[in-house]
Amino acid sequence: MNQRFNNKHVLITGAARGIGFEIARQFASEGGGLTLFDRDEKLLAEAAKKLGASAQAVRYYTLDVANREQVDAAIDEVEKELPVDILINNAGICLVTPFLKISPREWQTTLDVNLTGVFNVSQSVCRYFVKRKKGVVINMSSKNGLDGELGHAHYNASKAGVIMLTKTIAIELAHLGIRANAVCPGYVRSPINTGVDSDEFVNTFADRYIPMNRVGNVEEIAPVFLFLASDDASYINGQTFVIDGGQLAGQKPWKDLLKDVDHQS
C-alpha cells in the first residue's frame, strides 16, 4: 500500500463527517498522523475513534474556526506536540436562502465560518510554516465560488473569497517554501445535503446539469487533496481544482443533440 504520508502530520478542519472525515481516512490509510478540528464534540470523538486504528496518531480539538482565540490556542498546543506539515481547511456551512431574505446575521455567520475560519486557521498555522520554511495549505472552496447558484448568495461569496485568499497565500508565501491550492467540488452527496435533498431532486439535478449524469461522492473528492499535499504536486501552487462531473465545462447538451453526436461517431 502506498504510504506517501509516513511521518507527516495533517491538520484537518471540519473533520467529523462527510468530505472532511473521508479526507482524514484517506490520509490515515497512507500513513499520515492526524489532528482533527470540528465544533461537534460528539461526532468528532466518534470520528477520532474510527480513525485511530489506521492513523499514526489521532488528536482532536472541539472548536469553532470562526473564533480566533480558540484557533490560536489549539494550534499552539498542537505545534508543541508535533509540528503540522499539511493543513486542510474543510470546515464550512451552507444555508439556502433567497438573496432578498438573507438576514445580516445569516450573512455574517456564513462568512465567519466559510471565509474568516479559513483565514484564521491558515494564518495561525502558516506562521509556524514560515519558521520551518515548508508547508502545504489546501482550502475547500466550491464550484459555487466560480459559478453562482440562486439561494446561495452568502455561500457563493464566501467560497469565491476562499479562492482569492488561497491565491494570495500562494503568491506571498511561495518563496518561503509554502504552497497553497483550492479544491472546488460540485454537487457531492454528503451529510450536509443528504437530509435535505430528496433522491428525486438529486437525480433531476444530475440529469439537467451534470454531463456525467450523476452527482459525486466523498470518496472521489478526497484523493485530490492527497495528491495536492504530496510530493507529486511539488510545483503546483495557487491553483483551483474543480471536481464537478463536467458541470462547469459548459451547458449540458440536450439528449437529442447527443444522439446526433453519437450518430456522427
Detail the topology: elements first, then pairings:
Layout: E1 9-13, H1 18-29, E2 33-38, H2 41-51, E3 58-62, H3 68-81, E4 86-89, H4 104-132, E5 135-140, H5 153-173, E6 178-185, E7 188-189, H6 191-194, H7 199-209, E8 216-217, H8 218-229, E9 240-243, H9 255-264
Helix pairs in contact: 1-8, 3-4, 4-5
Report on the structure:
The chain has nine helices and nine strands. The chain is an alpha/beta fold and 265 residues long. A seven-stranded parallel β-sheet has the order 3-2-1-4-5-6-9, sandwiched between helices. Strands 7-8 form a two-stranded parallel sheet. Helix 1 (18-29) crosses helix 8 (218-229), helix 3 (68-81) packs parallel to helix 4 and helix 4 runs parallel beside helix 5 (153-173). The longest helix is centred in the middle third of the chain and has 29 residues, at 104-132. The radius of gyration is 19 Å and the shape is globular. The mean pLDDT is 93.
Count the E strands: 9
Helix content: 40-55%
Mean pLDDT: 93
How much β-strand is present in the residues?
A: 15-25%
Q: What structural category arises from helix and sheet content?
A: alpha/beta
Distance between the termini: 40 Å
List keywords for this structure.
7-stranded parallel beta sheet; 265 residues; alpha/beta; globular; two-stranded parallel sheet
In short:
With 265 residues, the chain is of the alpha/beta class. Helix content is 47%, strand content 16%.
